[in-house]
Amino acid sequence: MEYSEILRTRRSIRSYEERPVPVELLREMIRESTLAPSSGNNQPWRLVVITNGEMMRRISDESKKNLIARLEADPGDYIVRYESALRNREYNVFYNAPALVIVAGSRDYRNLLVDCALFASYFMNAAAARGLGTCWVNLGSDVRDPGLRAELGLSDDDRIVAPIIIGYPRAIPAAPIRREPDIIRIIE
Amino acid sequence: MEYSEILRTRRSIRSYEERPVPVELLREMIRESTLAPSSGNNQPWRLVVITNGEMMRRISDESKKNLIARLEADPGDYIVRYESALRNREYNVFYNAPALVIVAGSRDYRNLLVDCALFASYFMNAAAARGLGTCWVNLGSDVRDPGLRAELGLSDDDRIVAPIIIGYPRAIPAAPIRREPDIIRIIE
Fold first, then answer.
1. Pairing verdict, β B133-136 and B158-167
2. Which residues pair with A136 in a beta bridge?
3. DSSP string of B77-130, one letter each residue
4. What domains does chain B contain, in order, with CATH numbers?
5. N or C, which end of chain B is more exposed by having fewer CB within 10 Å?
6. Chain A residues within an 8 Å CB radius of B23
7. Is the CB of residue B143 less than 8 Å from the CB of residue B62?
8. Reduced to 3 states, what is the DSSP secondary structure of residue B67?
9. ipTM for the complex?
10. Degrees (nearest 5) of the Cα angle B169, B171, B176?
């Protein structure tokens, strides 16, 4: 696919067709995403691949529960803007997506956030190049329950950086408006 | 350009042709990079564009000085692996690149690192799509001198996330080897 087409079609997608995404395709996209640059070529990302809807629902419920607890401990937390969604039992933070890929890694690694974000960027492009949509769902990242973490294969040391949902988009919405970039200074 | 071609040619480039990069082209690439996703579409990135070699040298010297001070305060700091380069007065962390774009933003913003990394990923692709090379140079980010920060237009609140050098590559090296991705678990 032309890169300009990826720029146009890579949007955050929250509504998907029923069509499943084959695990083999997710694996191929993950492999391609390892081409992302990383600090010192350390490639600190670890992945969990989920196509099981029940498991996605459990992760969503666990994360919502923890975010609500966080909000109750600190009513000024920025997630207050999501409070009504989080308190809605029907609300699944992963919407009706047929697949979820979790990008995680060692929480003590100094460059974890940046390197996993670069990986995620490649992964979202890999999806767009195949006609798939994605959305990075921060609300799905607060997984603390030891039993559930163990089922996901996450050690205590692992931090979930990017839970990314994937599927065939029902529609590709227009890009939300971008501001003119804030170029503070040009030094020639 | 085909996206597969960008995947193949987007490499970290540390040796550039003498050829300058027009500021207007950098501006166009920055504008394109605002298509990157950001948390809540907040677009927290702020940019400094530099094509002045003397200024790049000053930023390099300032950052090297601060990194050496950090190393002297904590000899176990990971940057010890760069010590001999940092102590070499001739060494310019930005090599001979004709341009530098600094991606920065408010240090208190919770999603700054991730959002700026996504912007940087788009910017590095924007460069590759135009036959330009880039390298994210973490060693160039430790700028503390108030006078120099003021010249760059950075407030106390701004954190430099990504100093990215840009230019026409002398050569495009092969990709360093990627490990097979660590897929911890597949849950179907």
1. antiparallel
2. A164
3. SGGGGGHHHHH-TT--TTTT-SEEEEEEEETT-TTHHHHHHHHHHHHHHHHHHT
4. 10-167 (3.40.109.10)
5. C
6. 186, 188
7. yes
8. helix
9. 0.97
10. 105
**Torsion angles phi and psi, residue B32, rounded to 5:** -60, -35
DSSP A81-113: GGHHHHH-TT--TTTT-SEEEEEEEETT-TTHH
Q: Nearest CA to B187 among A105, A92, A143, A150?
A: A150
Q: For residue B135, give the DSSP letter.
A: E
Cα pseudo-dihedral B106, B111, B115, B116, rounded to 10: 40
Residue B95's contacts (CB-CB under 8 Å, 6 or more residues apart) are B14, B15, B16, B135, B165
Q: Nearest Cβ partner of A117 from B118, B125, B181?
A: B118
| Tens-digit pLDDT profile for residues B1-26 | 999 999 999 999 999 999 999 999 99
Position A107 confidence tier, pLDDT thresholds 50, 70, 90: very high
Nearest residue in chain A measured CA to CA from B39:
A138
> What spatial distance separates the first Cα and last Cα of chain B, rounded to whole Å?
36
| Cross-strand pairs, B159 | B105
- Tens digit of each residue's pLDDT (9 = 90 or more) over A91-105: 999 999 999 999 999
Closest CA to B173 of A37, A133, A185: A37
- The amino acid that residue B81 corresponds to is R
Give the residue among B130, B132, B141, B101 at the shortest CA–CA distance from B16. Answer: B132
Confidence label for A177 from pLDDT (cuts 50, 70 and 90): confident
What are the CA-CA distances from residue B142 to residues A58, A101, B56, B137, B149 (Å)? 42, 34, 13, 11, 11
Q: For testing the chain A interface, which of B54, B108, B121, B156 should be mutated: the one with the most A CBs within 10 Å?
A: B121
Distance from CA of A168 to the nearest CA of B (A): 18
